[in-house]
User: Fold this.
Amino acid sequence: MSHAESKKRGAIIGVVNLKGGVGKTTIAQTIAMYFLEHTDRKNVLIVDADPQGSSVKWAEIAVEKNLPAPRIQGLTAAPKLMIQELLALREERDLVVVDCPARLGESTRAAMAAADLLLMPVTPGPAEVWAVQDTLKLLQVALVARPELVTRAVMNRDSKTGIAADVAAALEMAGVVVMDQKIKQSVQYPDAMAVGKTVLSYKPSEKAAFEARKFGAEVKRLLDGIVGGGA
Assistant:
């Protein structure tokens, strides 16, 4: 087998929710850093499609402090060519993580059309039960076009409340599988981001880091089942 034939196929993970403030950027950064630091998929790119550019700012802090960080870039192609741009980036990278904006724009459409795995962060809150419906409808449309697309919901800032149970029930009714590992509320996530880190390295022996590693490992198992992978 030639080197070209044996090369591991790159993969795309899209992090999507039409509602803002659910932790898409934090989850995208955590996934990227988990793969960079704990797997053999080390050529990792975050596509920061969010106009706020939070991942770009986070990476700039990391570089200033000589900390490890994935490469960050936006989508530069014309809207109709964004899908091809993502697929081209996948050929160059082991993993591309797309941090989608909180709206249905061309970058979100491109991510949903190109991704191997779509993750939808959801948070427990009074508005979330209603707001999640729009994203669920979007996912159902994507699955009609691409039945092979793997989607998972991520319970972020999870709590043992009735609202959290309502959100989980709404997801189950819509046929969306919820990831086993939930992400609990912790000030360590924003604190880590502020200094160019993720919780994986900010306080690595604390509970938030332990949960994040379990979450990353679950994402890796999912991705390996879709595209194959190594250690």
Remarks:
- The longest helix spans residues 207-227.
